[in-house]
Write a structure and sequence with these properties.
The complex is a heterodimer of chains A (303) and B (433). Chain A is an all-alpha fold and 303 residues long. Chain A has helices at 8-51, 64-71, 73-104, 111-123, 126-136, 143-150, 164-192, 197-204, 209-237, 241-246, 258-268, 272-302, and strands spanning 52-53, 60-61. In chain A, strands 1-2 form a two-stranded antiparallel sheet. Chain A starts with 7 loop residues before the first helix and ends with a helix. In chain A, 28% of the residues are buried. Chain B has 433 residues and is an alpha+beta fold. Helices cover 48% and strands 12% of the residues of chain B. In chain B, the strands form three sheets. A five-stranded mixed β-sheet of chain B has the order 2-1-3-10-6. A three-stranded antiparallel β-sheet of chain B has the order 8-7-9. In chain B, strands 4-5 form a two-stranded antiparallel ribbon. The longest helix of chain B is centred in the N-terminal third of the chain and has 26 residues, at 2-27. The radius of gyration of chain B is 25 Å and the shape is globular. Classes of the chains: A mainly alpha (303), B alpha+beta (433). Chain A binds chain B through residues 19, 22-23, 26-27, 29-30, 33, 74, 138-141, 155-157, 159-164, 167, 247-254, 264, 267-271, and chain B through 4, 7-8, 11, 14-15, 72, 75-76, 79, 101, 205-208, 255-261, 265, 268-269, 272, 274, 392, 394-395, 398-399, 402-403, 405-406, 408-412, 424.
């Protein structure tokens, strides 16, 4: 075949094919260029920064940023805070979001209004949420302690963001307040996409409400759950804005997360190498957890 | 075929245009004496310099472009720019604790040669010594890299009416402060304008700059120092630990939750009349004579900081103006620097609420009539003390602040906090070498 001379029509076709594909390359070239410039180049540069030390002529490859991480009690504490924050907030957001979605997924009066109200916290920028809650949690002038006092409680011990014991709880509560609606929304969409037939069949077979939930709703809702959990986990691990506004990582170090510590290292101390090294650790952790979710999701789809 | 060629040419041109636009920024700083570029802090201090720049434009015909940044961004922008020597800015505003990081011949233009070209020996003697000392590296004795523009130093604020009520005299020592705080805290259970209690003392104990700034005057008065002569950290000296113990004692008369207070909360308490004493910056003084802002207008007095074993010393917090080494307009920039820090211009900045750095402006009759606290401010500034001058200050302050805040929130004892802070500061110092 290949040794034979090409017929005219074959030549034409191949040229047309080449023309078609080269046009495609030309058209996507700007996008690829932008991607290379904005995400691939910075990534490679960050690797270089993380593994290098010194400036100009004294620059050399080193692992010192990574060895320093292991003995940095502040980094380890920040990592612990991040994992604690993500786990507790995710648990509450998921359970509350699921409960609300199940509650709203049935004909109720005022359902539309309820749904709209629930979405408000999610629509607010995290910085605004931080400022509003900072004011509400103020031990003296804040609305929360004010309300408690007006019904007769003593609030001297409730210093919220100033108390080492309550500060983490406070920032988690604010996250739950803001992001439960997200899980609610995704799960509600998931619930409404479940076809009615399995439910009808279950009813005919006389299954109980719990059995219907356990063996029909839950398995069919699993993809939506996994997607909601995946997105929230990634967001929680990199949380920055609300905490920065609410407590700035304080009191002391009680609410400092890895993102805040990275920010400080880079933009307050100009220790870009160390900040880049910490960013990689956070990236790896996030990727590992996400990969777990995605594997579960794929297994679900295959089944 | 033609269409394709056209497309290829089009996309190449587009990419080229993008690239050239990107490169132009980098190569466009041709020496042009008729344009100056300023980097300044947003807020009242930066506004005064902006105003001066506009006036300078009108007077001299030099075009001044202004880049305004919030406090933290300003440091990052200036530091990155100075290191890369882009020449993007000809004049930069620096907060004095940043100065040690910038004060090298690689980053800032030395001012002595610029003075010599104008047949002057150096900065004139009208500048407050403590302010000018900040602009030199090493401190006080070294080469001049900046000029002081805004002369902040801490003052002690107290409620004159309450002190008179309980026949307390203006506190000279921290022990007197503690005694007065106790009296007011116990007796003024419903004394605030809204009927709530008046706390004896209020301070900022949120981590970071806040708690360190409110603690250092106590620390210094107790005779402690953060570093010894060899640069080794000494915050856990016996004096240092007793200073922190004293702060915690004073904290008993502060509003609950003060361990998370920043300037906002402290000023809210003072303006609402729910706290009787505090260390604060002069920028707040005008708010206390404004009945629209303060429920206790006219009842606040201002004085120099109390002492203990040692004399009372305020922390200095000046804004400096300097010329980056990378600037292509150093001569023009220096002309502007001299003009903006001259008495006439500094008076205008002072009228807007910025404490000056010149003795002649501090004693200006019009200004003294308007700001009765000026004599106290000048005294406080002249006897003030700078934060330790190290390029690693931001990191050291961060760590020190964490442990001070943890002690104030009740998480750590004074001894533990100071010992752990000392260990962590040592690590930073070692890394810096």
């Amino acid at each position: 075949m290949s040794s034979q001379p090409l017929t005219t029509s074959q030549k034409k076709r191949s040229r047309r094919r080449w023309r078609g594909s080269s046009l495609a390359y030309v058209l996507i070239a700007p996008t690829v260029a932008v991607l290379l410039a904005l995400s691939v180049y910075p990534l490679i540069y960050a690797i270089k920064v993380a593994f290098q030390s010194g400036n100009g002529e004294s620059a050399h490859w080193t692992l010192e940023h990574f060895t320093r991480l292991v003995s940095d009690r502040f980094f380890l504490a920040a990592l612990w805070h991040t994992l604690l924050y993500a786990t507790v907030a995710l648990t509450f957001e998921f359970l509350l979001g699921l409960g609300l979605a199940l509650l709203v997924d049935r004909p109720l009066r005022g359902r539309g209004l309820f749904r709209a109200l629930l979405l408000v916290p999610m629509m607010l920028p995290p910085v605004v949420v931080g400022v509003v809650w900072r004011l509400m949690l103020n031990p003296d002038f804040g609305a929360i302690n004010g309300t408690l006092r007006s019904v007769g409680f003593t609030t001297d011990a409730l210093t919220w963001t100033a108390s080492p014991a309550l500060a983490m709880l406070s920032v988690i509560a604010v996250d739950v307040w803001q992001w439960t609606p997200f899980i609610f929304l995704v799960l509600l969409a998931g619930l409404q996409a479940i076809p009615q037939e399995p439910y009808e069949a279950a009813r005919l077979d006389g299954s109980s409400a719990w059995q219907t939930f356990r063996f029909i709703t839950l398995p069919l809702l699993k993809p939506a759950m996994l997607i909601a959990l995946l997105l929230r986990t990634m967001d929680l691990l990199r949380v920055f804005d609300q905490i920065f506004i609410l407590t700035e990582g304080g009191p002391g170090f009680a609410t400092e997360t890895v993102s805040l510590y990275i920010y400080r290292a880079a933009f307050r101390f100009f220790d870009f190498g160390y900040a880049a090294a910490m960013s990689f650790i956070l990236l790896i952790i996030t990727n590992l957890i996400s990969a777990g979710y995605i594997r579960l999701l794929q297994r679900q789809e295959a089944a | 075929m033609q269409n394709r060629t056209r497309l290829v040419i089009l996309s190449i041109t587009l990419c080229g245009l993008l690239l050239s636009a990107a490169c132009r920024n980098a190569n466009n700083y041709s020496p042009d004496a008729k344009t100056l570029s300023l980097a300044l802090a947003s807020g009242v201090e930066g506004d005064a310099l902006k105003q001066a720049a506009r006036e300078y434009e009108a007077q001299t015909g030099v075009r001044v472009t202004i880049a305004e940044f919030p406090y933290d961004d300003l440091l990052a922008k200036e530091f990155v720019d100075s290191n890369a020597q882009t020449g993007a800015y000809d004049v930069i505003m620096l907060d004095d604790p940043w100065f040690a990081r910038f004060a090298t011949p690689d980053l800032l233009a030395e001012l002595a040669p610029l003075y010599q070209k104008r047949n002057q020996t150096g900065a004139d003697a009208d500048f407050v010594t403590a302010s000018l000392a900040l602009c030199k590296h090493p401190y006080e004795t070294g080469k001049l890299y900046a000029l002081p523009y805004v002369g902040n130093s801490q003052l002690f604020f107290y409620r004159k009416d309450l002190f008179d009520k309980y026949s307390l005299k203006e506190p000279q020592t921290w022990d007197e402060v503690l005694a007065a705080a106790k009296v007011i805290d116990e007796r003024e259970r419903t004394g605030a304008p809204d009927g709530s209690r008046v706390h004896g003392y209020v301070m900022r104990a949120a981590r970071g700059n806040s708690v360190v700034a409110d603690f250092l005057p106590i620390f210094w008065a107790f005779g402690a120092e953060m570093f010894d002569d060899n640069g080794k950290p000494t915050v856990n000296s016996p004096m240092g630990i007793s200073a922190l113990k004293f702060m915690l004692e004073l904290g008993k008369y502060a509003p609950p939750g003060y361990a998370s207070f920043n300037a906002t909360e402290v000023s809210a308490h003072l303006l609402q009349g729910t706290a009787a004493m505090s260390i604060n910056w002069p920028a707040w003084i005008s708010a206390f004579s404004d009945p629209a802002k303060s429920k206790v207008a006219g009842r606040m007095a201002f004085t120099t900081l109390p002492g203990a074993q040692g004399t009372g010393r305020a922390e200095i917090g000046n804004w400096l103006v300097a010329i980056p080494k990378g600037s292509h307009n150093q001569e023009a920039a220096f002309d502007f620097l001299l003009w903006a820090t001259a008495p006439e211009q500094m008076k205008k900045s002072a009228m807007a609420g910025n404490p000056p750095t010149r003795r002649s402006v501090f004693s200006d009759t019009e200004l003294v009539a308007r700001f009765p606290s000026y004599p106290a401010q000048l005294k406080s500034l002249e006897t003030s003390k700078p934060r330790p001058r190290t390029p690693m200050w931001n990191e050291i302050e961060n760590v020190f602040g964490i442990y001070l805040s943890r002690a104030n929130s009740g998480e750590l004892s004074a001894e533990d906090a100071m010992n752990q802070a000392n260990a962590e500061i040592s690590k930073i110092v070692e890394r810096g070498h």
